[in-house]
Amino acid sequence: MTLRTFASGAADAIARMGRMIASDDGVVAVETAVLLPVFLLITIGFSEMYMYIRAVSIVERTAFTVADTLGQKSNVIDTNSASSADNLGAYWNAASLIAKPLAIGDFGEVVITSICDKTSNCPNPTGTAGSTGTPSAMWQRYSPVNGTNPSALSSRLPASLVPANWPFRKGDSALAVEVFYSFNPFSMSSAIWAGAPGAVTIYEVVYVRPRWDLPVTLSAS
Asked: CB under 8 Å to 161, separation ≥6 — which residues?
């Protein structure tokens, strides 16, 4: 082999190596293999975040709407039938409709508590207005459920029934509507994330004062 032949062969080898280094075909494949799962995880993460925020918003809206509507009544009938607007069942049905697409009946609970001042002649208060009252539960009802109703969905009202900063006076009344919903925030990513946390309970309570300045009473069906 002559020096010229050796030099020519070495030049060809260097040129081929340069072309291989300059080629980006393999780089694109590697980048795709690395970045695609990351993009998928980010997309799934944003989707799950949106679904959680939406579920919280729906629970809040359901509690507020039921409380505001029921607060306009002076009396409701203790039956789960929704055949009349005076029936308690009409409000269970309303909560299910407002909460859609969340299935409150399968994975949640609605708790309604009517509160009055036990130091006065409840439900027809007497005595000096303005003095401090003592909240007492007149009645409390749970919505019927289709799924499992674990003890975690029991009423979470404080022992005082109303918040510490609620100005509850003698002869006052209030209505508390609690809405629970069991929600899995990692429903999609759990398929690829074995250690993903399970379901969490979304909870919202709304207090209103009855429009008639008297507690909402409950009549037998």
From this structure: 113, 115, 135, 136, 137, 174, 176
- pLDDT tens column, 160-190: 999 988 888 888 899 999 999 998 887 777 6
Any domain includes 29: no
Kindly state whether residue 43 falls inside one of the protein's structural domains.
Answer: no
Sheet holding 200-208, edge to edge: 135-142, 108-117, 173-183, 200-208
Per-residue CA distances from 172 to 29, 130, 181 (Å): 71, 9, 30
Pairing of strands 217-220, 200-208: unpaired
Instruction: Give residue 125's domain range.
Output: 58-220
Domain count for the chain: 1
**What digits encode the pLDDT tens for the residues 24-72?**
556 656 666 666 677 777 777 788 888 999 999 999 999 999 999 999 9
How far CA 133 is from CA of 28, 121, 161, 173, in Å, comes to 73, 11, 12, 10
**Is 120 domain-assigned?**
yes
- CA separation (Å) from 143 to 39, 155, 180, 217? 42, 12, 11, 17
Tokens standing for residue 57: 């918003």
Inside any domain, residue 8: no
| Residue 22, H or E segment | helix 3-22
Joined tokens for residue 117: 């001042």
CA atoms within 13 A on the CB side of 78: 12
* Residue 99 tokens, joined: 């909460």
Structure tokens at 193: 């994330």
